[in-house]
Amino acid sequence: MEPFRIGLVGLGTVGQGLVRLLSRSKPMLEGRSGARWELSWVCDRHVGPKWRRLGAVGMRPRLEKDFRRALRDPAVDVVVELIGGVAPARGLILQALASGKHVVTANKQLLSHSWPQLVHRAQVARRFLGLEAAVAGGIPIVLSLRQGLSASRVRSLLGILNGTANFVLTQMAHRKISQREALKEAQRRGLAERRSWMDTEGVDSAHKLSVLASLVAGGWVRCNRIPCEGIGGVSVEDVIFAQEKLGRAVRLLAGFRFLGGFRGEGVRVLPWVHPRLVPLGHPLAAVHGEYNGVFVETDAAGDLFFYGKGAGAYPAASAVLGDLVWICQQRRVCLHGGAGFTQSSHPVRLESLDGEVFRYFLRLQVGDRPGVLSKVCGVLGRAGVSIAEIFQEATSQGACAIRLVTHSAREERFQKAFHGLRLLRGVRRDPLSIRLLD
Amino acid sequence: MEPFRIGLVGLGTVGQGLVRLLSRSKPMLEGRSGARWELSWVCDRHVGPKWRRLGAVGMRPRLEKDFRRALRDPAVDVVVELIGGVAPARGLILQALASGKHVVTANKQLLSHSWPQLVHRAQVARRFLGLEAAVAGGIPIVLSLRQGLSASRVRSLLGILNGTANFVLTQMAHRKISQREALKEAQRRGLAERRSWMDTEGVDSAHKLSVLASLVAGGWVRCNRIPCEGIGGVSVEDVIFAQEKLGRAVRLLAGFRFLGGFRGEGVRVLPWVHPRLVPLGHPLAAVHGEYNGVFVETDAAGDLFFYGKGAGAYPAASAVLGDLVWICQQRRVCLHGGAGFTQSSHPVRLESLDGEVFRYFLRLQVGDRPGVLSKVCGVLGRAGVSIAEIFQEATSQGACAIRLVTHSAREERFQKAFHGLRLLRGVRRDPLSIRLLD
Fold it and tell me: Cβ atoms within 10 A of the Cβ of A295, count?
């Protein structure tokens, strides 16, 4: 069997999972791909102690702090980038492609940031850019969208793409603990990344959504243009109230809808990331802990739902290895389009949420004095937002919590009212609004 | 753009759906695959009137009653076989592969019947054998198992693989109608095939399970060795009782478990098809109507769940087209292993259900006279099967229905007891047993 030589850059959680899986499953992977796999290089700033702790058997890679020597090695067939972040990962990938190596990456931040450049370079170099591990961990969603559903038009996508935020929200609901405590638990279990605000503020979900939407739209859906709200303002009281009084669970969702066009002129996409109140009977409410779930609505294949582990070392490492098996089988081939998918040069127009219609849950802390409730109702009424249900509850320190659910309202109008409420005298803490999923 | 010429054999439900999708989505398919698609031949015994009724625009295929002329046309790149059944489909596929054409088929019956021969011929001919449409309609489960999860070991699979039987069971539960009426409704909606006993008796599910298990095991899991029970004996009263008294839904499930080995010596698989009583909160109980749902348990990627439309023309046609896009992109390539997957020559050993442990639901119609219940309990007790719950209800004509749920018992023992109950004097109609899903 001919060799298949891998250069691994980044020995963090996923990198270590990859090495462990590789040492466990080498015969299977070699059988499936028809080549002799070699881990030639492992590069990481702290590679020495990390590699020793791993205790991997049957592998003798060259260990380096600097990845540039691995990139210069002409024997390396594929570079696996698992360092994350934009720099120096982008330079690494571009250089690897330029020197004729295939690339596998789990770096959703970079992909969403430099999509056109990366895809273009892979196409020009006629090398494969594997990105299954960047989105939804062990779920083969990239493969399904790119290949399995290639004969269907995707109309919309809706899902839980961040396992950490979902773990935090389900822990808050089940154990009635604060967001801070839930996040600590996630970190303790190795589910939260160091920069956990990217998980809870929806930034990581937006990165992943950008990758999926770009893939489906055949053009770049810029991450920084995706309206993004996190779960930072959601308290355990809100979660419990939603569950007990409204029969709903809070979930951080990401989604997009195609409004027109297809791969070419007139492609219009409406993407968003924000928390939603999901009915408890809905499949997305049944996605607990670090799991991810993705709904895809298509014209021909109908509605589909994918569910699996979204966080953790092994699901992502398994996705990396799946891409590696594929590359190993296909590497003799100049792939159609190089990167394994085609990209249109037409720009993708992003639509705003303003014209969309939602029902909203609203929570305000107000001073417990006469007239506040009437003022709140006034602000909503003047914006044309009508109230369906209202709950008022005295809290400590002479304050009171107003919680309400509106009837359907246009986003634009509701945001105007919400802005007005923030400015209202007597409204104490930052008010919170969460859209309902109907 | 160079041409990509398709010969379609079989203009039934899926074939017609394929032509409709093709005429609707040609520019998209051509854009994604980088070739000019041509439907060169359409072959069907009644091709003339069927084609006219379709009113397809933009396509001028040669219409033939006999497919042999299409197979002799050297310009045809790929043959799509949608006639179903073993003969003459097998000869058609083998001849197509031998004459250098790729093949896409939705024929699960043939695949499960002639797996080693078909895979071997595709490998020798170095041609692609597309079979996504054979299992679970629009769900890309074949692609996911073959490629997305290629770096994981599948430990078990469990799912609803027959949309017709699932439609019948959910109609019985929701509308409280008999199985016969539900089946008529399915036929009226175009969901049931003519030979609907293959759906309700689990034979179709066994064909599909055989395909999935063979794919994962890397060897033939013979369909006729899969223990298979259908839903023929399940009455609307049983369905309602299960729902109201046990909080469970009846689902026709198919599954397998790997007991040892992997692609090579010692591969042992335990496959089965039978109805199960699924807790109402379980995701498989939420699979309604013609939908399919598949759980896959893997070592590295964790647990996964796939859900989508399992019956109907468009989901299957979309899967056929997905395979065609793939073949069109890859046809210049001699695929690794030819058929797109590797097969071991080692035999797959099938294990029996006898050693498994289940809880059972049991329903008997008995003459309403003293001592019958005691005899029933005696038979179960002597086999070592103990009763957890028992319900007795007088029915018309001086008869009574005994329904009970057992504690966990070995399959072997329960079947012995069940056989004894059938022979018992006073037991009127065929007794029914359904295993619980725990």
Answer: 20
Q: Which residues of A touch B133 (CB under 8 A)?
A: none
Chosen for mutation from B18, B123, B135, B147 (greatest number of chain A CBs closer than 10 Å) is B147
Distant-in-sequence, close-in-space partners of B269: CB < 8 Å, separation ≥ 6:
B213, B217, B221, B256, B257, B258, B259, B348, B349, B350, B351
Q: Is A254 on the interface with B (CB under 8 A)?
A: no
In the prediction, which pLDDT does A260 show? 72
pLDDT in tens, B262-299: 555 578 899 999 999 999 988 999 999 999 999 999 99
Tokens encoding B3 = 């041409």
The rounded radius of gyration (Å) of the Cα atoms in chain A is 24
CA distance A285 to chain B (A): 12
Question: What does the mean pLDDT of chain B come to?
Answer: 91
ipTM (interface predicted TM):
0.90
- Phi/psi for B346 (5° steps) reads -70, 140
DSSP 3-state percent helix, strand, coil across chain B (nearest 5)? 40, 25, 35
Considering only CA atoms, give the Rg of chain B: 24
Tokens of B316: 């299957």
Best mutation target, A32, A216, A287, A294, to test chain B (most B CBs within 10 A): A32
User: What residue in B sits closest to A136 (Cα-Cα)?
Assistant: B301
Q: How many residues does chain B have?
A: 438
Which tens digit of pLDDT belongs to each residue from B71-92?
A: 999 999 999 999 999 999 999 9
DSSP E strands, A10-51:
36-43
Q: How far apart are CA A176 and CA A183, in angstroms?
A: 13
Considering chain A, what percentage of its residues have pLDDT values greater than 90? 72
Spell out which residues of chain A touch residue B33, defining contact as CB-CB under 8 Å: 336
Q: What is the DSSP string of B409-422?
A: EEHHHHHHHHHHHH
> Looking at chain B from residue 324 to 353, which residues have their Cβ under 8 Å from any Cβ of chain A?
324-326, 329-330, 332-333, 335-337, 342
E-state strands within B32-145: 36-43, 62-64, 78-81, 102-105, 129-130
SS3 A288: coil
Option in B25, B300, B335 nearest A314 (CB): B300
Spatial distance between the Cα atoms of B26 and A262, rounded to a whole number of angstroms: 12
- The whole-angstrom separation of Cα B250 and Cα B200 is 13
Residue B262's CB: how many other CB atoms inside 10 A? 18
Dihedral (CA of A101, A105, A109, A113) sign: positive
Residue A258, phi then psi, degrees to nearest 5: -90, 130
Half-sphere exposure of A14 (CA within 13 A, CB side): 28
Residues A19, A350: Cα–Cα separation, whole Å: 40
Judge whether A144 is closer than 8 Å to chain B, CB to CB. yes
Q: How many residues appear in chain A?
A: 438
- Please give the residue that has the higher pLDDT: either A142 or B332: A142
Question: What's the predicted TM-score (pTM) here?
Answer: 0.92
